[in-house]
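User: Could you check the structure of this?
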Amino acid sequence: MLIVKQNLPNAGKLVTSLRSTGYDNIAAICDLVDNSIDADANEIKIDILNGRDGIEILIGDDGSGMDESILFEALKLGSITDRDESSDLGKFGMGLVTASWSFCKNILVISKKEGGEILRNEIDIDTIVAKNDFVCAPGVPTKEENGVFRKYVKNGSGTLVR
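Assistant: Sure, the predicted structure tokens are below.
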């Protein structure tokens, strides 16, 4: 009888190494924009700004948005969401995270489904390395985050990735 034992990856080393997956900035942004297209967005806004901690890239759309469970799953490596695996770039469930990490250490996603509430989830490489565990910070956006979201998603549903 074969004996199996769980052999989890070292979270800190894995997330640090995933920053070097070969994305250039253009390919990374295209992968994130593909998520907006998959969400049936009619309008996609991209801004590159000088933020408090350096350059910030914001991608907002008026697509279908995400509920709490999908938003939680979207920031998981190897996420399982409804995708057309024959054509979507996101068929492996790694794109949002690895594309973003190719040029930043912190990913904040704020999203709202039609008729739902505005939700947030955030993952941070330094936190994952410090805890050596795959952790995220889901919840309700701050007043400031809510304001930024509203600049990109005027009505209805949509998603903002920072």
